[in-house]
Amino acid sequence: MEQYVIKGGHPLVGEVEIGGAKNAALAILAAAIMTDDTVLIDNLPDVNDVNVLLDAIEGIGAMVHRVDRHTVKINGTNIRNMSVEYDYIKKIRASYYLLGALLGKYKRGEVALPGGCNIGSRPIDQHLKGFRALGAEISIEHGKVVAEAHNFQGEHVYFDVVTVGATINVMMAACLAEGITIMENVAKEPHVVDVANFLNSMGANIRGAGTDVIKIRGVKSLHGTQYSVIPDQIEAGTFMYAAAATKGDVTVLNVIPKHLESTIAKLKDMGCEVEEFDDAVRVVSKGNLKSTHVKTLPYPGFPTDMQPQIGVILALCKGTSTITESIFENRFKYLDELARMGAKVKVEGNSATVEGIEGFTGARVSAPDLRAGAALCIAGMAADGITIVDDIVYIQRGYEHFEEKLRGIGALIEKVSSEKEIQKFKLKIG
């Protein structure tokens, strides 16, 4: 099993380039099969989740051609298999987007019930509610969701909760339904807007993405396009918070600052200096950070995917902070690991109280999920001594060349796979 070994205590300084948004890329790749023309997508992150989804797309018969690490051509002409196997779904939840894509294009799809990061219950009931509203018949057979539509009509869909996955999935299917679909109480995340823009570039008629109401006028068919995925706001936020935790000075390049407003606001609350440019953000931390309170909310609120990263910084802030997690109930697992590094934390239900300490000490910790894994690496870079992070397969699901980018701004971090390599690293850094 691969691990990260980190020598802490070095401020991160320099520039780091941010890749394409993983969560946008996954939905866009699924939507690319909805035309029989060739679609070219670039600025894809080269991460495990994207590669697994491309395998799943190939698995149902689509042509997938990797032009380079960040560019792919997809052609869905020869899809004959309407069933997405469990092997793909258990690795990556976003494979369920293929259900909306297949249902829209072929009026039938089968997808195994999803897997992914273990951060709490993430039911797909709102996806199914939306598909049923459009006229699909839904059944669960042999561990699969089977959706079939004989009369696929636009309809009024009101989501009981704000959900990114269901917003995107139902939006994809509704593009090729007859008539007008109005979706209310939808998610407003940047990647929802990006998927809508992608579908519109293929000839869909979607209005209102980024607001509470999305209106879709169904079209007969979609056509080919070339499209570039937006930058990843969570990758950007992770490096910004790494700068804050290590008393660093880091500029993240290739970002849309508007997408980072809540992330930036909390950095300022804690006492960091933040400078915004057209497509870059610079974060300077001089230490002496102060406590604040955080509540995760759907966009434009503070992202749940940034909660573990801010948790690490709050543990180093002067005073007592609180974190309220309103999206996923299992998102505090990393705090047990952080306590091994000296953090003073107390969890009660969906709230955590964090009492600031002088500094972390290196320890052996385990990544419970993707974002928590990245957060523990940040803690390791801020800690005194050596930190070993196990189960980094989670981190590799969502961050491209994580350790290489960190080394580029001064981190002492290596990917290792044996005790011998850990000892070699310790000898090398002295």
Automatic annotation (TrEMBL):
It catalyses: phosphoenolpyruvate + UDP-N-acetyl-alpha-D-glucosamine = UDP-N-acetyl-3-O-(1-carboxyvinyl)-alpha-D-glucosamine + phosphate. This is UDP-N-acetylglucosamine 1-carboxyvinyltransferase. UDP-N-acetyl-alpha-D-glucosamine binds at R93, R122, P123, I124, D125, Q126, D305, I327. One of its GO terms (molecular function) is UDP-N-acetylglucosamine 1-carboxyvinyltransferase activity. The gene is murA. Its EC number is 2.5.1.7. Pathway: Cell wall biogenesis; peptidoglycan biosynthesis. It comes from Aequitasia blattaphilus. It comes from the Bacteria. Phosphoenolpyruvate binds at K22, N23. The active site is at C117 (proton donor). The keyword Cell wall biogenesis/degradation applies. Pfam families: EPSP_synthase. It is found in: Cytoplasm.
